[in-house]
Write a structure and sequence with these properties.
Strand content: over 45%
CATH class: Mainly Beta
Shape: elongated
Order of helices and strands: EEEEEEEEEEEEEEEEEEE
CATH topology: Jelly Rolls
Radius of gyration: 22 Å
Number of helices: 0
Largest sheet: 17 strands, mixed
CATH architecture: Sandwich
Number of domains: 1
Number of strands: 19
Oligomer: single chain
């Protein structure tokens, strides 16, 4: 049976009759525990809080999944790393990652960055930044020494890096996270003040804006985050920081228990 959002139990009584007409009855109770993590409509992964200081750095790696487009056509998912989604000093989330979609039976993958909410309420896509299933991605969100914030999404399989710097611009570099980039868009009016949570998430994103409907959720298999870090001086993933997606009474994306400096998230829809 599918995972449930609440604990439940069922009582079954089975009666068997032999060829001679004698009968025997057995009664059994089947119990299903509630999931040991927080439930969300659209996030699955881990959200790590800070008890005091602003989080100024979050990072991690993953491999771009192969979507099961025949089973979940016209669908998508967004794998990202961010700061501030569940505790920003400004109410804002700064994030970067890869959006994977099924379009006409074909998988498409785009590297993006986003501050949410903002006037646009939509991510910006890094152009001339090819991404394919099986590529290894490293992502970072951090504060610079001058108070500006930077997001980095690095395709370790191609050597290209998508960089965004608040108050300046965003674009693609072939020189790694510290390389210069040709500007694809301006962030002259964009600022960020940090947050009190760090996130590693597979998301069922909204189609248009914060008020838009959720995109049909893609069967992404399993995504494993590794090498995750934050600026917190002493921390480690704990089970109560996990979050899973529940829609219409059914768990459709479930995090694993922490394992060292990482964890996995699996499609269960």
């Amino acid at each position: 049976m599918p995972a449930s959002e609440v604990a439940a139990s069922w009582l079954f009584t089975v009666t068997a009759t032999s060829s001679t007409g004698s009968t025997t009855t057995s009664t059994q109770t089947v119990t299903e525990s509630a999931p040991p993590f927080t439930l969300s409509l659209n996030w699955s992964g881990f959200v790590v809080p800070s008890s005091g200081a602003l989080i100024t750095d979050a990072s991690g790696d993953w491999t771009v999944p192969t979507l099961n487009c025949p089973v979940t056509p016209g669908s998508g998912e967004f794998t990202w790393i961010g700061i501030g989604g569940n505790g920003s000093s400004t109410g804002a989330l700064l994030q970067t990652g890869i959006v994977d979609t099924c379009v006409d039976g074909i998988q498409h993958d785009n590297a993006v960055w986003e501050e949410w909410p903002d006037e646009q309420n939509a991510w910006d896509v890094f152009n001339d930044f090819p991404v394919s299933p099986g590529n290894t991605i490293a992502a970072y969100v951090y504060e610079l020494n001058n108070g500006q914030w930077e997001t980095v999404v690095e395709n370790l399989s191609t050597g290209l890096t998508g960089i965004m710097v608040t108050g300046e611009g965003w674009g693609v570099s072939s020189g790694g996270p510290t390389g210069s980039f040709i500007e694809q868009g301006s962030t002259a009016d964009l600022s960020y003040s940090g947050g009190y949570t760090a996130e590693w998430i597979v998301e069922d994103y909204t189609q248009v804006s914060v008020d838009g409907p959720l995109e049909p959720f893609a069967d992404y298999g399993t995504v494993t985050f590794t090498g995750i870090t934050t600026s917190l001086s002493s921390w480690g993933l704990t089970a109560n920081e996990a979050i899973g997606i529940e829609q219409n009474g059914k768990m459709i994306s479930t995090p694993s228990a922490p394992s060292g400096d990482g964890f996995s998230v699996s499609y269960t829809g």
